[in-house]
Amino acid sequence: MSQSDSQAISVWWLYLIRTRQNTLYAGITTDVEKRFAEHTQGKKGAKYLRAKGPLTLVYYVCIGSRSLASKAEYRLKRLRKSQKEQIVTISPDRHQLLSLLALIEDKG
Fold first, then answer.
1. Distance CA 98, CA 76 (A)
2. Does the pTM of the predicted model rise above 0.70?
3. Which residues pair with 26 in a beta bridge?
4. Cβ atoms 29, 12 nearer than 8 A
5. DSSP calls for 78-106
6. Which end of the chain is more exposed for a tag (fewer CB within 10 A), N or C?
7. Is the Cα dihedral 89, 108, 75, 81 positive or negative?
8. CA atoms of 1 and 28, how far apart (whole Å)
């Protein structure tokens, strides 16, 4: 399988990580476990998360395409902390999350 083939079938995930200071960090990836390990180890992880551990993966959901995942991440990052906490609490599935973020119409 070529690099372009693997990129064409990549499935993207949106995730939330809680820091020691109780902040929530949002990101996207094709491999949640690997990305969380990178954040935890600090080498390839986000600079924002360095020295903010221990980190806890509190929510993740399969979104699909990179484009849609990027849009969802952008909208999620713009929410108030209380709204992000609600997402962690209710743990919405893909459809529910995309509806909450106004990326698809909720058809009932």
1. 10
2. yes
3. 16
4. yes
5. TS-HHHHHHHHHH---HHHHHHHTTSS--
6. C
7. negative
8. 24
